[in-house]
């Protein structure tokens, strides 16, 4: 009986290894390609503004496609969320680059006294660093097989500098899935 169980474990392990070698999964790649801010106003520790981002999602896998079932995007300053939005679900084929537009609006967001003071000082120096984070429920698809849902967490920092320069430098993101 022990030999049968051992043989089944070895066969199952070989099947998983062969499948993994055939698929050769690669890490998903995310960058912020462009960012802008409009209607920025910080008054009495309350923030208003519209923040636009162009997110580049790259699926380098040759045999895996991805279903993004839900996507939540947030904008933070000094570990405080200042804007939040959701994006439409979509399907990303294998070896594909998809660009997503995210508009995040801060409407009368109360900042802590310390965060508001720091943001004013940073703005006066021309360098306010904001961070974009997003979380998505994704499901990988290989041929006709769909794998179980996973949570993808992506952090992009810093993405937006208020400065005299009108050029934007691409921001590379860190993925955790």
Automatic annotation (TrEMBL):
<dbReference type="GO" id="GO:0005886">
    <property type="term" value="C:plasma membrane"/>
</dbReference>
<keyword id="KW-1133">Transmembrane helix</keyword>
<dbReference type="InterPro" id="IPR044839">
    <property type="entry name" value="NDR1-like"/>
</dbReference>
<dbReference type="Pfam" id="PF03168">
    <property type="entry name" value="LEA_2"/>
</dbReference>
<keyword id="KW-0472">Membrane</keyword>
<dbReference type="InterPro" id="IPR004864">
    <property type="entry name" value="LEA_2"/>
</dbReference>
<dbReference type="GO" id="GO:0098542">
    <property type="term" value="P:defense response to other organism"/>
</dbReference>
<keyword id="KW-0812">Transmembrane</keyword>
<feature type="domain" description="Late embryogenesis abundant protein LEA-2 subgroup">
    <location>
        <begin position="55"/>
        <end position="156"/>
    </location>
</feature>
<protein>
    <recommendedName>
        <fullName>Late embryogenesis abundant protein LEA-2 subgroup domain-containing protein</fullName>
    </recommendedName>
</protein>
């Amino acid at each position: 009986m022990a030999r049968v169980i051992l043989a089944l474990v070895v066969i199952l392990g070989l099947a998983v290894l062969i499948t993994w070698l055939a698929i050769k999964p690669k890490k998903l790649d995310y960058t912020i390609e462009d960012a802008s801010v409009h209607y920025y106003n910080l008054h009495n520790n309350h923030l208003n503004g519209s923040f636009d981002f162009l997110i580049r999602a790259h699926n380098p896998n040759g045999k895996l496609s991805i279903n993004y079932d839900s996507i939540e995007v947030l904008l933070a300053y000094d570990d405080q969320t200042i804007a939040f939005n959701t994006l439409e679900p979509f399907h990303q084929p294998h070896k594909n680059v998809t660009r997503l537009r995210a508009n995040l609006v801060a409407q009368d967001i109360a900042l802590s006294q310390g965060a508001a003071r720091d943001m004013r000082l940073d703005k006066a120096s021309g360098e306010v660093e904001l961070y974009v984070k997003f979380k998505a429920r994704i499901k990988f698809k290989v041929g006709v097989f769909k794998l179980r849902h996973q949570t993808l967490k992506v952090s992009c920092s810093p993405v937006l500098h208020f400065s005299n320069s009108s050029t934007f430098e691409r921001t590379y993101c860190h993925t955790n899935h």
